[in-house]
Every structure is written in C-alpha cells, then in structure tokens.
Design brief:
3 domains; 305 residues; Alpha/beta knot; elongated; alpha/beta; six-stranded parallel beta sheet; disordered N terminus; single chain
C-alpha cells in the first residue's frame, strides 16, 4: 500500500494512533512500556454538528413509539446503559457520542470496545447530544439498539419472576426490572398490553437490567397456560391476601408474582387463577404503595423464603 501521509496523534482516549492516508489504525500504548496492545479501526472521523443530519434525525425520532415499531430500534442513553447493551451482546446499531462530554476513562474505553466489535461509533457536538438527551446533565453518549422479542416458551430456566397486568407507567416497569436483577429473579412478563418496554423511561429506569433479564409480552390466557405447564405457583396480590410473611410457608420454590395494573389491580378472574394471595400491611394513613415499590418489597420477602 502506498503511504500518503504518516502522522502521530492522540485520540480522545489519550492513546496514540497513526494516520496512514485515509486509513486509521488505533495503537493503544502503555504509558510505562509503550507496548502495542490493540490494533483496530478508529471511529467515524467527521464530527456531526447539524440538527438536520439524517443520523441525528433518526436518533431524535426514536423517542416516538411509531418510529421504534417501524425501525425495530430503540434509544439507549448514558454510559452505564450503553455499556450494558454492548457487554450483553445486544445488536447495537450506532453509538453517538460527544468527545467534549466524555469525562471518564470507562466511557472512552467503552467506545474502544464497541469499535472492536464493529459497532459504528459517530462523534457529534456537545450541543447536539444535549438536544437529544432525555435528561439534564447528559453524559455525552447515546446508542440505537435493535429490539428483541422473547416468547414464553423461551423462558428456560424460569424459577422465579414477575408478571404485570397492563402496566401504564414506564418508570414502574423499569424499576421492577432493576429490582428483578438485584434479587436474582429470572424475568418479567407483561400481560394484556401496557407500556412499551423500549420506551426511553423504561430503559433509563431499568439501569441496564433490560439487557440482562428477559421480558415477554403475552395475553393472560396464554400466560396462565404456560404457568400450569411449567408447574409454577401463581402468587397474586390483593388487599385480602396474607400479610404476615413470617408465617408464610413456601413449599413450592418456583413461582410467579402477579401484579395488577396501577389503576385497577387484579380482576376477579385473575384472582381466582392464583394459588395464593399476598398483601402488604399498611400501618399508616395510606391505602396502597407505588407499583414499583410494592414489587420490590414482595420480591425481597419472597426470595428469602
């Protein structure tokens, strides 16, 4: 190959790379030994600065449900969340980052790891990232990721998890996912519609758990048939259920916790399908808890049985 230009520079990682003509080769050099550790393509060279750029428009449109449905992609924001998607080997389409906003070594190493996996990494101005971000003080990194579809039959093994009837609050669903991961449960099942699991608020509230725990959509009828064939105990939640967990006997260790929607709870039909009803004692003036909080309390109590 004819060498048109050789120029040594530092990239945003603080590592050196050699530019040879139009080809970029990243050489990460140890400060102490100057030993060559990696040899790989660099990220996209030209920084995006215009809000009218097609890629920027694509990212902006992913905040809308119809675009997510049409493209099969969803938006992931933040260092921890994008890192989880990459580490869990989800199909990351593009990473968009602002070099001026990346302040941690982890974020910069994340870009390097993504580029090694062949993920497109495109730089953009800090103003563009701030405009696309869904929260204040953005961390300077976004990703578009391919959605996954999981069926009930694919939940193997499944010993303990949560099912929710038509949840409406994205933050609650993300919180339940995060708690599922924390207690070591196996997955989440959303029944009879409800919030889009790939809504940005769900992704953000899950704190990366979305990429590690399976989520299934199903009808209550199909779910109940799966519960029976899988020999799982169905634990419902009701104000009339057992509230003294110290006396609760859990001879059958495999179960699904069934939660009603925020507004309606469980119907009479759904309650009748449950093997056991549970409730949380309310000792103050309030009569109920937030769905995400209630799920967390139930899960920590049940996982200890």
């Amino acid at each position: 190959m004819d060498i048109l230009l050789v120029k040594e520079q530092k990239n945003i990682f603080g590592h050196f790379f050699i530019e040879i003509g139009a080809t970029h080769v990243c050489q990460v050099v140890s400060k102490c030994t100057s030993k060559l550790m990696y040899n790989q393509p660099m990220t996209e060279k030209e920084m995006l600065t215009s809000r009218n750029n097609p890629l920027i428009k694509e990212f902006r449109a992913l905040s809308q449900a119809k675009t997510r449905k049409h493209t099969g992609l969803f938006l992931v924001e933040g260092i921890h969340h994008v890192g989880a998607a990459v580490e869990a080997d989800w199909d990351v389409d593009t990473i968009l980052y602002a070099p001026d906003l990346l302040t941690s070594d982890y974020a910069r190493d994340l870009l390097l790891a993504a580029a090694q996996k062949g993920i497109r990494c495109q730089s953009a101005s800090a103003d563009l990232l701030r405009a696309l971000a869904g929260k204040e003080n953005p961390q300077g990194i976004l990703a578009s990721v391919r959605q996954r579809t999981t069926a009930l039959a694919e939940l193997q093994p499944f010993r303990r998890g949560v099912a929710v009837i038509s949840p409406q609050d994205a933050g609650n669903v993300g919180t339940i996912l995060r708690t599922l991961d924390a207690v070591g449960a196996d997955g989440l099942i959303l029944l009879d519609g409800g919030v889009d699991i790939y809504h940005p608020k769900v992704v953000r509230a899950s704190m990366g758990a979305l990429f590690w725990k399976p989520v299934v959509r199903a009808s209550f009828t199909d779910f109940l048939a799966w519960v029976r064939t899988s020999n799982l105990r169905l634990l419902g939640t009701s104000a009339h259920g057992v509230s003294d967990f110290s006396t609760l006997e859990m001879a059958q260790k495999d179960w699904v916790l069934l939660l009603g929607s925020e507004q309606k709870g469980l119907s009479n039909e759904q309650i009748a399908a449950c093997d056991l009803l549970l409730s949380l004692p309310m000792r103050g003036k309030g009569t109920s808890l937030n769905l995400g909080v209630a799920a967390g309390v139930f899960l920590y109590e049940l996982m200890g049985k």
